[in-house]
Design brief:
23% helix, alpha/beta, single chain, 489 residues, binds 2-acetamido-2-deoxy-beta-D-glucopyranose, Rossmann fold, seven-stranded mixed beta sheet, five-stranded parallel beta sheet
Length: 489
């Protein structure tokens, strides 16, 4: 009874071509049990229907699988519905042959259990993507993965990132290979698209022609929603995976993390008695590259400099560093007690290199404006920063900074985190390793597709970022090394 109804449901929800493969696969498997299932998948032609072919010219919306075409959550067999092979697991406590537990079928892979983050009641953002599970096949968990980097990377530094065009980027996972060779697309478990090198509008002629169902197309974007990006509407239902600074991305592309910070300290070593005021003769520094701006940070800084001295450098101030001089910024920053790590937008979890690299890694206290305090509490080392929201006004902040300037002990207290790591630091080893780990661990039959990438990235009603404050359009100007702000309507 149960099994007939299961089969019926199964046939209804599986696209016909997949069912065919499934049957075909088992026939083949019987004939040649040693065949690698991955080889077989590559022969699947049906995936080609998923992508518009070259002859289609510009893609019609109908070509894009829309939500109706994708099996919706109810149609997809739930893990509980899939008949489990009855195995009597020996009790580990009194069985010496624990190693000999019979192999469990793939569908009981814990990685394939439905994830709470995909449940709209738990995560409202999950309505912006679809998740389904392909029928359980004997597709093994991935034990090695290939990632093709399809676009150039953000600063056209592909040669630096992959000197030989191909290689392992994550030392701890040598079985995870990145390649810039586009002809390896058929082997790819994932294809990386860096957003600034994508065409603004979806253009099939510059995207891979081949796409098999196991392959993840990855949207990689390091900036917050305020930055220029692709025209989202044309890229609906194209990407399976996101890499952004946000922790709920499919894999993290954060600019820094607790894990990496404490790893770095392990290598560098920490002197618990170090006096961090030594060699710092100057008070506060701010590097800013966008001078015409409505950003909240300018209004705040304008007020702040009325009460304390801040040196302002950057493209619109005094240019002090040549673009590719990597020692220049640290040389300057380490002369200061405070670094204004003011982000250009207040977005959830948006902590950039200003915080991690410019301030924290240079042993200078970051004064932060951007994400909410609660985000910093979760993501940053404890008591390592000064958040502007803790002060009633820029004037009060200025008073506090000038107080710390005179109080060596209080100043040094902002570096105690180095010897007091928080408990349970999440694993976050940088973008390359994060991607490898997630790909290797992901349920092999799980499928995901961003049907509304804009909604996911900006949040419903753009809730991911606070709106710009209603300040007049401003322009930074400089007068005798001090900056002032000219407002004009
Ligand atoms: C698509 O990209 C190709 C190659 O860059 C370009 O020649 C063509 O004009 C683009 N099509 C559209 C509609 O932008
Ligand atoms: C880089 O910047 C440092 C510090 O400002 C300076 O001393 C050095 O000469 C610069 N190096 C180059 C190659 O310009
Ligand atoms: C910051 O917190 C406030 C109050 O909880 C909230 O309304 C706002 O959306 C949050 N902003 C961001 C960018 O997370
Ligand atoms: C990615 O999306 C495509 C297009 O809908 C789909 O065919 C494929 O199975 C998805 N891949 C994964 C790994 O989710
Ligand atoms: C977004 O805005 C719409 C229309 O104003 C409103 O109905 C909806 O509840 C809002 N959603 C959220 C999550 O605030």
């Amino acid at each position: 009874m149960r099994s007939t109804s299961l089969i019926r449901r199964f046939l209804v929800m599986v696209p016909i071509c997949l069912a065919t493969i499934f049957v075909f696969y088992f026939t083949n498997a019987l004939m040649d049990s040693s065949r690698d299932s991955r080889d077989f998948e590559h022969k699947c032609d049906c995936s080609k229907h998923d992508i518009p072919s070259k002859q289609d010219g510009h893609r019609e919306i109908q070509d894009i699988p829309n939500k109706q075409d994708i099996p919706n959550r109810q149609d997809v067999p739930k893990i509980q519905d899939i008949p489990k092979k009855q195995v009597d697991l020996p009790n580990a406590g009194n069985n010496p042959n624990v190693d000999k537990i019979p192999e469990v079928p793939e569908q009981t892979d814990p990685a394939c259990a439905p994830e709470p983050k995909d449940n709209p009641n738990v995560n409202p953002l999950s309505k912006f993507y679809s998740v389904w599970y392909d029928p359980p096949t004997q597709v093994a968990k991935r034990d090695k993965v290939t990632i093709v980097i399809w676009t150039e990377l953000w600063d056209n530094q592909m040669r630096k990132v992959l000197p030989k065009g191909k290689g392992a980027k994550c030392l701890s996972m040598p079985n995870c290979i990145f390649s810039k060779f586009r002809n390896e697309i058929e082997e790819a478990d994932a294809v990386l698209f860096e957003v600034s090198n994508l065409q603004k509008n979806y253009n099939a002629s510059v995207l891979p022609k081949f796409r098999h169902p196991r392959q993840h197309w990855v949207w990689y974007h390091t900036e917050c929603p305020g930055f220029p990006s692709i025209n989202f509407e044309t890229y609906r239902s194209v990407f399976n995976w996101t890499i952004t600074y946000r922790a709920d991305s499919d894999s993290s592309g954060a600019w820094g993390s607790l894990h990496r910070t404490y790893q770095r300290l392990k290598v560098e070593g920490v002197d618990p008695n170090k006096d961090y005021t030594k060699g710092k003769r100057k008070l506060a520094v701010w590097f800013i590259s966008k001078c015409n701006t409505q950003a909240n940070r300018v209004a705040y800084a304008t007020e702040l400099v009325k009460h304390m001295h801040v040196d302002v450098f950057g493209r619109c101030g005094k240019t002090v560093c040549a673009k590719w001089n990597v020692t220049c910024m640290p040389d300057i920053i380490t002369q200061y007690k405070f670094y204004l790590a003011f982000e250009n937008m207040k977005c959830k979890e948006y902590l950039t290199e200003k915080f991690w690299r410019n301030a924290l890694a240079n042993d200078v206290i970051p004064v932060v404006l951007g994400a909410n305090r609660s985000d910093y509490e979760r993501l940053a080392p404890p008591h390592s920063y000064i958040h502007v929201d803790d002060f009633k006004s820029p004037k009060e902040l200025a008073n506090y900074l000038m107080l710390l300037d005179k109080d060596k002990d209080q100043y040094n207290a902002y570096f105690k985190w180095k010897t007091h790591p928080p408990k349970d630091i999440p694993l976050e080893e940088g973008m390359w390793c994060n991607m490898c780990r997630e790909l290797l661990n992901r349920c092999p039959t799980k499928r995901k597709l961003y049907t509304n990438l804009r909604g996911w990235f900006e949040g419903e009603n753009k809730s991911m970022c606070d709106p710009m404050e209603d300040v007049k359009f401003q322009e930074l100007q400089f007068e005798n090394d001090r900056f002032k702000v000219a407002s004009y309507a």
